[in-house]
Amino acid sequence: MNTEDGKRSGRPKEVLTDEIIKKIHKMILNDRKLKLNEIANTLKILTERVHHIIHEYLGMGNLSAKAVSEDDQA
Fold this sequence. Notes:
By secondary structure, the protein is mainly alpha-helical. Helix content is 49%, strand content 11%.
């Protein structure tokens, strides 16, 4: 019985790192009109991952198609 994983086709599993979070934050601060898919394509990660990072890790929401701090929405 072999317990090691063999090579698989498809996308590799994405790892959430502080570096990716910082890059996304910097991109948004530089251009608040960036779309999720533009960020995802630039960083070569899933759009869903970008959305999760923006909302859960950066505490930003969507307001008038711009990413803004949730504190600014109040």
